[in-house]
What we know:
4-stranded antiparallel β-sheet; disordered N terminus; 11 helices; alpha+beta; 10 strands; 4-stranded mixed β-sheet; Glutaredoxin
Amino acid sequence: MKKNKKKHKAVNHHKNPEKVSEIKPAELIAETEGLSNEDVIILESAIKNDSESNQKEEKIEKHRKNNLIEHEPKNKRNKIFVSIFLLLVIGSYAFSFQEKVAAKNVVALKDKTEKYIKENLVQPGTDLKITDFAKEDSLYKFTVKVGSQEIVSYVTSDGKRLLINPIDLDGENKGSDSKVPAPAAEATAKKDVPEVELFVMSLCPYGIQAEKGILPVVEKLGSKINFAVKFVDYTLHGKKEFDENLNQYCIQKEEPEKFNDYLACFAKDGDSVKCATQTKISKEKNSSCVSATDKEFKLTENFSANGQTSPFNIHKDLNDKYGVQGSPGLVVNGQLLESGRDSASLLKTICSGFSNQPEECSESLPSVSPTPGFGG
C-alpha cells in the first residue's frame, strides 16, 4: 500500500515582499511547516495569547516604572522626615539623660556640702538646712540656715572649695554703710606696736584652728604687739557657744595675763571647766563680768532659744567697721587681712603691720596649718 505523502509547497518570499508582509505569522509558519487549517487556528490562538501576555507584562512594567518615578521624590521626603524625626527623638533622649545626670550631680554636691558643714562647722545635732542651691557663674551659691540666721555661701563645682560668707567686691556690705575692700595680704597702715585682732566664734573649728596658729606668734612677739580675741556678731553653735563666747570675753577682760594659757588649753579639748581650774581663773570675777556684760549688751534678751544661731553683739560695731564676715577674721591696724592659718603665715602677715620689723619677724615658726577644731 502506498503511503500518502504531504507535499510541502515551496514559497519564495523574496518574489513579492509586499505580499509577504501581509501574511500572518501563523500562516507563514503553516506554509513553511505544511500545517492543516485546524493547526493554523490553534497556532494563531497561541500566538495571540502570547502577544497579549507580553503586552500585558510590558504595561505592568511600564506602570511600575511610572509609579516609581512618580513616588520617588515623595519616598525620599518620607525618608528624610523619618531620619530627622529619629534624630530629634535621639537628641531629646540624650538631652534628657544629660539633664538627669547633671541634676543628680547637683544633688550630690549639695548633700556633700551639707554633710561637711554639719560634721565640721557646727555642733552635733544642730538644726541646719541648705536652701537656694543654684549655679552662679563658675560656683554654686547657697544659703545656710541655722535657726533664724541665714548665711550666703559658695562651693566650687568640683566640691573641693567651700567659701563661707564671701565678700562681694562689686557690691555693698550689708552690715556696713561703706563698701568693703577685699582682704589684703599685707597691712597698709604701719605702727610701732601693731594692733592685732582675731575675730572668731569660740566653737568654730576654723576659728579654733586660727587660734592654735596665732598663739605661737603672740608668744614670739610678746609685748611688741597688742593682741586681742574679738567675737563675730553671731553664733552658729547654740547656747554652748553663746556661753563660751561670754566666758572668754570676761577672762580676757578681767584676767588678760591668763587668757592665752586658757585659750591654748581650751583649744585642746574644749573643756572650759578644766581649763579655768588649770589656769586659776577667778570664778567670782568671771561670774560678775558675765552678768554685767549680759545686761549691757542684752545678750540673753536677744538670744534665740529656738535655734543654734543667735546675735552676739559685744563687738558688732567692729564687725561692721572692718567688714568681718565670719570666723576667723584677722585684723591688723584696723584692716582686714588675708592669711594662712599656720604660724609662719600669720607671723608674716602680722609683721607687715610694723613700722620697723623686729628681729622676731625673721625667725622660723611652723608652716603647717593646725588641724581645725579641738585637738593638737
